[in-house]
Structure formats: C-alpha cells, structure tokens
C-alpha cells in the first residue's frame, strides 16, 4: 500500500521522547516514556517519534512497548529513528513492528561541514547511500521518512538531488532539519519553496521540518515553512531538546489555531473557515506540558508562551481593568482552550475511592489498581491537611506517584530543627535496598542543605546539586509545593521531583528520587561492564 501525501492540514510529529529526551538531565525510563506516549495520544499528535532503538537496549524496549501499547489502529503512527545504516534500520523496524502504523525515520548528513568532519564522505558517496538505505527501510515498512541532516547549511542544489533520489527509493516524507538552529524565517521559508520548485517528484512526499531554537527562531522558521508548503512539523512539548531545544508544539499549534484566518488561504481554504488546521485537542496542552515538565525535571519558565505560569496573568492596573470588562482586550485566547480551567473544588476528606477514581478518569489518568491505591492514600493524607482540594492538587499527587524513581532507597523519616538563632540540623532515616534502616544527622546552612548532607552520609554516591526549584501548585498557605532538583555525577545529569504540602519533606523526597535514578544508572553501568568482560 502506497501512502498518499496529506496537504489539507498540518501533521504534528512529536519528538519529545527522542530529541526532547536528549536534553541533559531529561533522561526518562521506559515506564515514564510510556506515560508520556499515552498522553501524547490523548493530545492527538499524528506521529510519535518514540526513540532511537539502536542507541541502547532500554531505548529499543521503550519504543517496542510504546508501539504495542499506544500504536493502535486509531492511535498515532509510531516512529523509530535510525542512521542510514543497516543495523540501525533493522533495529528500528523490529522496535516499531507491533504498531498498527509503523514508521522508520532514517537520516544522513548533507552539509559540507558534516561530510568533511563527521562522516568523512564525499557527496557522491552520500548520494548513493541515501536511496539504498531508504529502500532497505521500505522493505520493512510502507511509511519511510528521510532526513538530510543539517539541511539548513547544505548546498541547495545537492539537497534537491538527494531528496529526489530518496523519494524515488520510497520515502513518503522528506524532513528538512535546521539541525543547529542557524536559519532565519525568510531563509527557511525560501529553502522549502526552493525544494517545492526544484525537486521533480516532491509531490509524491510530504515536506516536513525539524528545527532547533539556538537563535530563538524555531517556531518562526516553522511558520514560514508552512507558508511555503511544509505540512509536517517536528516539535516537542515545552520545546525541550538538545542545546536551546526544539520548536515548541504548544506554540506552533496555538499559533495555527488562533491565527486560522491568516493561515487558511495557504491550505486553499477561505479565511473565515473554522476547521482546525491540526487534529490536536488543545485542551490537553497544559496537562501535557505539566506531565513532561515533572517527569523530565525541566521546569517551564514563568513567561513561557502558552503554558508558562504568567501566560494568562495580568498585573498592570490598565490590563486588569480591560480584562475584567472584556477578556479580548488583552487576551487573544482563553486559558480554558489549553485545558487551564478555573481552580474548582472537586473533592474533600469525605470523598470515597470510587469518586476519586472517577475524577481521575475525567482528568485523563489511567492508573493500575496498585497506583490508584497509592494515589488514594496520598489524597486522603492531603485531605487531612487541606480543607479544599483542586484538580491541580490531584494532578500533582498523582503525577508524583506515577513518576517515582526506582526504589533503591526509601525515605522513612525526615526531621529538621532550624531558626534565626539556631544551627539548622536534620535527621533522616532511609531504608536500604536490603531492607535495613539507616539513620544519620547533619548540620547545614539551612534545613534543606542539612537534609541533603544527612542523606549523602547514608547514600554515599558522589554528586553535585546543580539545580533546586520550588513551585506552588495552587495559591494559599496550605498549597502543595512541588520540588524539582537536578544532580550531576561525572558527565551525566539526573532529575528528581516530589510534591507535598511540606516543602522540606518534598525537598528530601526529590533528592532521594534523583539519587535513586543515579544509583540505577550506576548499577546498569556495572552490569554492562560485567557483560562486556564476560564476552571478552
């Protein structure tokens, strides 16, 4: 079956789980990837690039599990990334095989600087490799995407040649990456226009774009590409990714949604058409943003467009007066349109397990009985401390439960003593992987510093705390505090997250979570080293 290009709307290709995860400190385990993949499916993305299967056994397993679980007939296309080599492509094919709609995305560099210094190959060699590997990928799946890496700095004439032979070999999508975030909107739009005008068989494939935000131009570049014929946008939730990140999905989708009248003519529609330009359920945007932020440990800046804490806040007196009279005076979209509803009171201390379960389903959570029981216990504990519980509170405690790190060490007790005339002192008790309880104490410059020093005395793993952040989930003195931290060990970064009405307890739990992730990674490294030694 040959796929026919779709030109009547924008295809949203989400690479949060592949390019987004390559951001330092954003490493996700297989279960966390699956949680995000399920949310991406609810969000309505067309394609999920689930990972780079050849990169590691863990990545392969995660892609395969996502393909089997999320890649249903009515779900998104599941894509695996592969370099233009047989071993990469075969691994990707095996990983995405369980999906109803599998895709292999293969790439090779085309810019002269990459050819000379990275590949050490000539243009002629690459021109031969590309169609050969596309054809090899085509032997496994009907849906093949080809990317000329660093297209933004490639010679256009060479780009036209390699795209033509890739399409002739079976590529159904050709992706044009601005790999280093170098181009400007006019240049990028011109590049797409040049491809449409100079690649003879371009009508047989969908033009896609992928871009990084090194100059803060990724979203603007993509919108210019749309005006010139691009119909697939490769993006990530919150714009996470290598270096300065990728084009942000929420910004692209809402730009196309809010400015439909401007973009409709580029799709052959009358300006007044209200038909959506993407199939994204915009009401799932905020929840998707929060989930990815919590699981990756990558915080969203307050002034971030669409999903930042201040995106719909108005402090200026003139602005407040206008908004109270008519929201349209200063708001071009409703907070409700991205799923940011009013902070309504939904449950209380007398609510039962059934009501709690129903509310979770309404919020889009699908929990196992075990996770539901743990979340319900947390809910009851919170209900004893907070009189009024909001949807945001529920999301915070549920996200905290489903994203727990490997349970190498368990925090059993944390107690602090501090004050303006006292030496901050902390006592902690941790349960070890062997079930033994260890208690230690330390002093520090503050309560959190004392806690972390005490934990370090128990979990003796060298690390450097590089980021510590506390955010309030809702307003009020009894609000849940979410703590996100990042620790560094050698050249790798690990994140930890926890939520609690007591930010001291949340700080301790977040640190233990990060150290558990670090401990898991070290354990895997030891097992891998033992395996390599045994093989030798």
SSE layout:
Layout: E1 11-14, H1 30-43, E2 47-51, H2 57-69, E3 77-83, H3 86-96, E4 102-109, H4 112-119, H5 123-138, E5 143-149, H6 156-168, E6 173-178, H7 185-198, E7 206-211, H8 218-227, E8 232-235, H9 249-258, H10 260-263, H11 285-296, H12 317-325, E9 345-347, H13 353-362, H14 369-385, E10 389-390, H15 391-402, E11 410-419, E12 422-431, E13 437-443, H16 447-458, E14 464-472, E15 481-489, E16 492-500, H17 503-535
Helix pairs in contact: 1-2, 1-11, 2-3, 5-6, 7-8, 14-15, 16-17
The amount of helix comes to 40-55%
Number of helices: 17
Low-confidence stretches: 1-5, 314-324
Question: How would you classify the helix and strand content by structural class?
Answer: alpha/beta
Q: What's the arrangement of strands in the largest beta sheet? A: 1-2-3-4-5-6-7-8
Tell me what portion of residues adopts beta-strand conformation: 15-25%
Instruction: Assign an overall shape.
Output: globular
Characterize the structure shown.
The chain is an alpha/beta fold and 536 residues long. Helix content is 41%, strand content 20%. The chain is built from 17 helices and 16 strands. The protein has helices spanning 30-43, 57-69, 86-96, 112-119, 123-138, 156-168, 185-198, 218-227, 249-258, 260-263, 285-296, 317-325, 353-362, 369-385, 391-402, 447-458, 503-535; strands spanning 11-14, 47-51, 77-83, 102-109, 143-149, 173-178, 206-211, 232-235, 345-347, 389-390, 410-419, 422-431, 437-443, 464-472, 481-489, 492-500. It has an eight-stranded parallel beta barrel, surrounded by seven helices. A three-stranded antiparallel β-sheet has the order 11-12-13. Helix 3 links the parallel strand 3 (77-83) and strand 4. Helix 14 crosses helix 15 (391-402). It is globular. The chain starts with 10 loop residues before the first strand and ends with a helix. It holds the Pfam family LeuA_dimer.
């Amino acid at each position: 079956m040959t796929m026919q290009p779709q030109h009547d709307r924008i295809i949203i290709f989400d690479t949060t789980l592949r390019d987004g995860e390559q951001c330092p400190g954003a490493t996700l385990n297989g279960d966390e990837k699956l949680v995000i993949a399920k949310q991406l499916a609810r969000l309505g993305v067309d394609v999920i690039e689930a990972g780079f299967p050849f990169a590691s056994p863990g990545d392969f397993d995660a892609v395969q599990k996502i393909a089997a679980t999320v890649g249903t007939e009515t779900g998104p296309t599941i894509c695996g990334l592969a370099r233009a080599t047989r071993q990469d492509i075969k691994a990707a094919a095996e990983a995405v095989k369980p999906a109803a709609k599998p895709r292999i995305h293969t790439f090779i560099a085309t810019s002269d600087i990459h050819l000379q210094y990275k590949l050490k190959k000539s243009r002629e060699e690459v021109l031969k490799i590309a169609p050969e590997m596309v054809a090899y990928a085509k032997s496994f799946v009907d849906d093949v995407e080809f990317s000329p890496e660093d297209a933004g700095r490639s010679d256009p004439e060479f780009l036209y040649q390699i795209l033509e032979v890739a399409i002739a070999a079976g590529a159904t999508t050709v992706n044009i990456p601005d790999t280093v975030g170098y181009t400007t909107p006019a240049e990028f739009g011109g590049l797409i226009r040049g491809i449409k005008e100079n690649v003879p068989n371009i009508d047989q494939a969908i033009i896609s774009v992928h871009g990084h935000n090194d100059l803060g131009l990724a979203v603007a570049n993509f919108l210019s590409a749309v005006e010139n014929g691009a119909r697939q946008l490769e993006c990530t939730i919150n714009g996470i990714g290598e270096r300065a990140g990728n084009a942000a999905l929420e910004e692209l989708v809402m730009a196309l949604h809010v400015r439909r009248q401007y973009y409709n003519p580029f799709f052959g529609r009358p300006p007044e058409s209200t038909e959506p330009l993407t199939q994204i359920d915009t009401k799932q945007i905020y929840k998707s943003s929060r989930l990815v932020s919590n699981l990756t440990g990558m915080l969203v800046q307050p002034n971030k467009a669409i999903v930042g804490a201040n995106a719909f806040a108005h402090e200026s007196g003139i602005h407040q007066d206008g908004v109270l009279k008519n929201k349209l005076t200063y708001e071009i979209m409703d907070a409700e349109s991205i799923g940011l509803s009013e902070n309504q009171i939904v449950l209380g201390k007398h609510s039962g397990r059934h009501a709690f379960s129903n509310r979770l389903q309404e919020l889009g959570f699908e929990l196992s009985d075990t996770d539901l029981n743990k979340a319900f216990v947390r809910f009851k504990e919170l209900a004893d401390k907070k009189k009024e519980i909001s949807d945001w509170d529920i999301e915070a405690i549920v996200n905290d439960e489903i994203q727990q790190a490997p349970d190498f060490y368990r925090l059993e007790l944390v107690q602090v003593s501090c004050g303006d005339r006292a030496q901050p002192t902390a006592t902690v008790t941790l349960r070890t992987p062997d079930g033994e309880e260890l208690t230690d104490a330390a002093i520090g410059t503050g309560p959190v510093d004392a806690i972390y020093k005490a934990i370090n005395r128990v979990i003796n793993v060298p690390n450097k705390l590089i980021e510590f952040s506390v955010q309030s989930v809702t307003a009020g003195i009894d609000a849940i505090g979410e703590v996100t931290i990042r620790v560094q060990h050698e050249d790798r970064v690990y994140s930890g997250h926890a939520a609690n009405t007591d930010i001291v307890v949340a700080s301790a739990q977040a640190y233990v979570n990060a150290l558990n992730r670090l401990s898991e990674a070290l354990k895997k490294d030891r097992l891998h080293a033992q395996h390599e030694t045994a093989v030798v």
